[in-house]
Amino acid sequence: MIRAGAASVDITPPAGLHLAGFAARTMPATGTHDPLTARAIVVEDTAVVVLDVIGLHEDMAARIRRRSSLPDDNIIVAATHTHGAPVSMKGRLGRAADPAFLQLIEDGAVEALRLACEGRRPAEIAAGMGGDPGVAWNRRHVDGPLDRSVPVIRIRDSDGQCIAVMTSYACHPVVLAADNLEMTADYPFYVRQALEAAHPGAVALFLTGCAGDANTGHTAQASWTLAANSARTFATAGRLGKRIAAAALEAGEQRVTGAVGAMHRELDLALTRLEDGPLPELAERWHKERETADPVRAILLEHWVEWAERNQDVAPGAWRARVSLLDWGGIPIVAMPGEIFSETGLSVREACGSMPAFVLGYAGGMPGYIPPMSEFCFGGYEVEEAHRFIGMPGTFAPGSAEALADAACGLLRERY
């Protein structure tokens, strides 16, 4: 048997902070629909901790790892990527993050890891794969690729009590749109609620897979409005979350008895500029357009002007990425940073063979979209524009996603 523990810590701030994820939404949060949490599972001296925020700055993720009693190399720090939580990254996403909330989420992650460590007891791991819940759609291509996998891990103590259940799915948690002003984990809240109801006393973790181009059926541009959408409600989030949970609950399981281990690699990813002109000229053009633009477009252009003025003398440079692998008894948990597209996630999943592997995005840092080379010819928000709102000096250069996948596959070959 191994030793394992799990814990959940509330990280919900008071109302009044600005919610992250939609440029059109400028009003602060009015209240809380469901609590934001930091949730951790510790297996031997390895751990996964996931927070209900849009993303974590890589510096904060590093501090969380360092502040834990576990080895730094052995921890995956991830975000669910909900767009229903306040700004959670310093210097990104167009609005200043509240320092008290930043401290709250960092301390919450550290506390969840501490409690999970202290609660470790003899346990067994069982794993399986759920069927396709039919929730995700490729938002860039009607017939585009999707990772439909629902891997599941259940951890039970020597008395058969379920300590934790962990599942994953590759779909943006953006059922709720820009008109929502209540803090929420979005559909992952309902996934966890159903899993915990089925496993009384357990802590449920939901981890978002490679969902850069996957959501519940709308384009990125569809969120550039404050208009209410009858398809993007808490009722819809509940219905879809329960479908994902049902797939996880129906998954078979097989006990795994292999060793527990951890590995990671770091690599520098080049940034580039795809803009059609010098940034000062673009700033002037966008500023002029803003004068006659509709209100939501004007908000977006304001962010673009600010980005161009801030970066006109800044070279795009490079960004240091961290790719992690945890091995829980023969079950791989692969974690990559940023918004990884389905194509990339599927290439890593293929390298995992028949194992019910977890292939995650939004881990170790959230610098925005990292498109595969095949997507650059199509352009669009995720390729050409998102980095301006996120606050990166450029978009990730072609080949970046492939480099991450190569690093992940290299770790899998080395471990297995």
SSE order, one letter for each helix or strand? EEEEHEHEEEEEHEEHEEHHEEEHEEHEH
Structural class by SSE content? alpha/beta
How many structural domains does the protein architecture include?
2
For the sheet with most strands, the description reads: 9 strands, mixed
Number of helices: 9
Low-confidence stretches: none
Amount of beta strand:
25-35%
Helix residue percentage: 25-40%
**Total strand segments:** 20
Q: Determine the N-to-C terminus distance.
A: 21 Å
Q: Provide the residue-averaged pLDDT.
A: 96
Oligomer: single chain
Query: Radius of gyration, Cα only, in angstroms?
Result: 20 Å
Overall geometry: globular
Describe the overall structure.
- The chain has 416 residues and is of the alpha/beta class.
- It folds into two domains: 2-264 and 319-387 and 394-415, no CATH class; 274-315, no CATH class.
- It is built from nine helices and 20 strands.
- Strands 1, 3, 4, 5, 6, 8, 9, 11 and 13 form a nine-stranded mixed β-sheet that branches.
- Helix 1 (58-67) links the parallel strand 4 (46-51) and strand 5 (75-79).
- Helix 1 packs parallel to helix 2.
- The longest helix is centred in the first third of the chain and has 20 residues, at 99-118.
- The two termini are 21 Å apart.
- The model has no long low-confidence stretch (mean pLDDT 96).
